[in-house]
Amino acid sequence: MTVSVFDLFSVGIGPSSSHTVGPMRAATLFTERLRRADLLDQVARVRAELFGSLGATGHGHGSPKAVLLGLEGHQPETVDPVAVADRVDEIRESGRLLLDGTREIAFSVDRDLVLHRRKSLPVHPNGMRFSASDGAGGELLAAVYYSVGGGFVVDDDASGADRIKPDAT
């Protein structure tokens, strides 16, 4: 993986790149996976779960807002920070989200965006799980991502979970 100075010093919203830029990118990556798998038109519901540090400090650090914007396809580098609060309020009030910027779906922030304050995923404290289901409730796609710092995100496949061992000391 090549990292440039532009990767290290990227523009983003929020007080913490691990809690805003990373979750926004993870949500966007999930919607891109749905699009590449040609599943967007079948999605009736999306669920986002934040674990560990993201779940514990989510609202204070803006993680839920970042996830909502990412699910709509916004990028940290280009999202209009002035419009963020209004858009998040609109999603909350309408109960509708524009998935990947193209598909309107029902979305209850209270039901579909879960903050697990005392649960963590095994690989990293900043874990996220996304799932999409069809109108009958059948799961179309699920993915786990980790915000590993500096706005960088890895998915479960790239995390090296099979090689990471707990510290026994």
Automatic annotation (TrEMBL):
Pathway where this protein functions: Carbohydrate biosynthesis; gluconeogenesis
UniProt keyword annotation of Iron present: yes
Keywords assigned: 4Fe-4S, Gluconeogenesis, Iron, Iron-sulfur, Lyase, Metal-binding
TM stretches of this protein: none
Domain of life: Bacteria
EC number: 4.3.1.17
Residues annotated as signal peptide: none
Cofactor(s) needed: [4Fe-4S] cluster
Gene Ontology MF annotations: 4 iron, 4 sulfur cluster binding; L-serine ammonia-lyase activity; metal ion binding
GO BP terms in the entry: gluconeogenesis
All residue ranges annotated as the Serine dehydratase beta chain domain in the record: 4-157
Key word Transferase present: no
Catalytic activity: L-serine = pyruvate + NH4(+)
Similarity annotation: Belongs to the iron-sulfur dependent L-serine dehydratase family.
Protein name per UniProt: L-serine dehydratase
The species this protein was found in: Haloactinomyces albus
